[in-house]
Specification:
With 142 residues, the protein is mainly β. 13% of the residues lie in helices and 46% in strands. The chain starts with a helix and ends with a strand.
């Protein structure tokens, strides 16, 4: 059985097409482009022992995106965290203190617009003497 030139050409063309379709393309991670700024590492974090009210102010030229929230009260009593922007509540979290140690990873994040201040209100059953919190996220161009 003989193979024709047409069959050989068709096989070669299909092989080249398969090779191009399996070739890898350039990868892009999130966030890309102008979304992230402040150099190569735009991450930030704050935390500590809260008073009843804490504030978080975004730089005048950068938005702050809160991606993770952790808070606890080691004396095994409930703790509440309420976050407000311009007087409106944007998030509220509660820990029962006995088994619950919230580690909240926000899929979209909470945006603090450039130059604005987020107010965080903390309240605990027996006060805040053993309360701790950590917020983290990244800077983004407005």
């Amino acid at each position: 059985m003989q193979t024709s030139r047409f069959q050989l050409g068709l096989i070669a063309t299909l092989a080249v097409g398969l090779g191009f379709s399996l070739a890898s393309s350039h990868a892009a991670g999130y966030p890309v482009g102008a979304t992230v700024s402040m150099g190569s590492n735009p991450l930030w974090s704050v935390g500590g022992a809260p008073s009843s009210t804490e504030t978080l102010t975004a730089p005048s030229d950068q938005d702050m995106i809160i991606t993770d929230v952790h808070f606890s009260n080691t004396d095994a009593h409930w703790l509440r965290l309420e976050m407000q922007l311009a007087g409106a509540t944007v998030a509220s979290f509660v820990s029962d203190g006995t088994t619950d140690r919230p580690q909240i990873s926000l899929q979209s994040g909470i945006r603090v617009p450039a130059g604005q201040t987020m107010t965080m209100g903390f309240d605990g059953y027996y006060g805040l003497s053993s309360a701790r919190y950590t917020l983290s996220g990244y800077y983004a161009q407005p």
